[in-house]
Amino acid sequence: MRFGSEVTRLMRVLRIDPPGLVVGTIFYTWSLTPSLLPRNWAFQGLIGGIAAATGYAVGAVIALAAERLLLPKATWWPPPPRVRRWLRIGVPVLCLAASLVALYYGVGWQDELASLMGAAEPTFLGYLRAMAMSVGVAVAIVGAFRLLRDVGRWLARKLNRLFKIPRRVAGVLSLVVVLFVTYALIDGVAVRGGYMALNAAFSASNDTTRDGAVRPTLPEKSGSPQSLARWDTLGFEGRNFVSGGIRAAELAHFNGRPALEPIRVYAGLESADGPDAQMRLIVDELERTGAFERSTIVVIPTTGTGWVNPTAAQTFELVANGDIALVAAQYSYLPSWMSFLADRREAADAGRRLVNAVHARWLAEPAAHRPRLFVYGESLGTQAGEGAFDDLNDIRSTVDGVLWVGPPNSNRLWHSLVERRDPGTPEADPTYANGLVVRFANDAAGIWRNPDEWLSPRVLYIQHRSDPVVWWSPSLLYRKPDWLAEPASGDRTPTMRWYPFVTFWQVTADLGNAAGVPDGHGHNYGTVILDGWVAVTQPAGWTAADTARVRGALEALRGHDGPEK
To answer: Rounded to 5 degrees, what are φ and ψ at 323?
Structure first.
């Protein structure tokens, strides 16, 4: 019985609540179930701890309610001391055993998911670290809330003693004060201070240049000696963008016919004094490079730091054989996921400014001689691009087509189209108005699954079933989404289930690994962008052999135009 006494003493010292421990264990085992992407031990440890702490709180609240409302009426309550002692011993042991069993099955589920995507498979011993980390995270979260509770109780006693405020009123007042001060500290100090610190940190990295990125000498590129946008003002991603690209000689080699030097126009945050001046610089650069004399202009609202997917840029240049101008602008120093959390309104505003500036200058060209005007966006860049338009009619009256890849779930236009999808079509692969104007696809084959007419200008969303950027939403906390109620297909495992609170944190963790899986899964779209681009732009005389040729060229060029993410 000495072991039992030690367990009982430990639970008293740690103030472990048995019902909280039971429900916390249930939530922890839920966290081990599969989600959209394979999870390494660190991500699993984090979400496991958050889930366990959430379950502990739920269990403690249920126990408190039962103790005050139900158990006083029960004749068998409280149980004998011997039973209570055995419960204090047995509950932790059973919870530990259940957690280990769930951990074993969890590793198996992760192996299946990793095999489905061709990713590295975790091991049981490796996942034991996740369990230890989950315990630490859960203890820290529960401890923090207990500290706030103790502060509230101390404040309530002071209010009661010093100001003779009734205990219940003092309790409510102390709760309000603690919540207000905590919110003020988090919002005013942690969030805003952290945002400023991160912005300053990434501003410094914006001044660096990737190894291998050199100042262009061609006049068709921003940052060149002839450019109005200085090389040192373009930012890290801008310098990477303009130093890349496929030369005319390479295009001629891949396409088998003479080619033009592609135009790449870019303006960084430091290239001009303010957003309006930045847009004037963009237009001036388009005019300087002769962009309006090309057959195609592609406006690319960027992700947070100004990143442009090099595979997408190369695709556009190959398909057009260099007779094209790509234009982009930086609007933030922060990476895409940080901008998504802190800068979503700015992303939409930046997209609107860029599209409107280029479109206004494009309208000044004679209608018979205007180049075709397209918009491309990826990830947060789709949110920036959507910000330029009110609805589908606005898109169709402004540009010649749009390709959006990996749109965040919070995108206004995307969300409204999915919500109003044709009856009977799944959320994960929706059809809107029978695909007459806008279409959704999970892969290359899905672009043409609808044989009916597709009017021009065309709008196409490409979205993987396993992309957490597309499916993450705060509503996962409390509501089962349609895409999880639908039969699983493609690269979404059928063993994924929805659990309140837990699924939200699972998909949140998946965001951190969204680009860490092979092409064709998660947030890595690879060369399916080529299939989407051909579908939207409809190049004259294009054949399947042309698509295969360009795909081969993209494989040969992989890694030659900067990092993929």
So the answer is: -85, 65
pLDDT digit string, tens, across residues 120-138: 888 888 899 999 999 999 9
Global confidence as pTM: 0.89
Q: What is the identity of the amino acid at 107?
A: V
Q: Pick from 349, 470, 355: which is nearest to 405 by CA?
A: 470
Q: Is 460 helix (H, G, I), strand (E, B) or coil?
A: strand
CB neighbour class for 116 (10 Å; exposed up to 12, middle 13-18, buried from 19): middle
DSSP 174-238: HHHHHHHHHHHIIIIIIIHHHHHHHHHHHHHHHT---TT-----STTBTTSTT-SS-GGGSHHHH
User: 């099955």: which residue's tokens?
Assistant: 105
Angle at 370 between CA 320 and CA 551, to 5 degrees: 15
Task: Give the span between the Cα atoms of 259 and 249, in whole angstroms.
Answer: 7
Stretches in the chain below the pLDDT threshold 50: 1, 12-13, 563-565
pLDDT tens digit sequence for 158-179: 888 888 888 888 888 888 888 8
Please answer whether residues 333 and 269 qualify as being in contact, where contact means their C-beta atoms are separated by less than 8 angstroms.
yes
C-beta atoms surrounding 293 within 10 Å:
13
End-to-end CA distance of the chain: 58
- Give the β-pairing of 438-441 and 401-405: unpaired
State how far the alpha carbon of 459 is from the alpha carbons of 16, 71, 329, 391, 537, in Å. Answer: 56, 61, 22, 11, 10
The CA distance from 332 to 307, in Å, is: 10
For residue 78, the Cα-to-chain-centroid distance in whole angstroms is: 50
The whole-angstrom separation of Cα 277 and Cα 415 is 33
Q: What is the rounded CA–CA span in Å between residue 125 and residue 434? A: 50
Residue 418, phi then psi, degrees to nearest 5? -65, -40
Angle, helices 124-163 vs 18-31, to 10°: value is: 140
Instruction: Report the C-alpha gap between 496 and 345 in whole angstroms.
Output: 32
Angle (CA) 114-120-124 rounded to 5° is: 85
Q: How many CB atoms lie within 10 A of CB 208?
A: 11
Whether residue 410 contacts residue 436, with contact meaning beta carbons closer than 8 Å, is answered with no
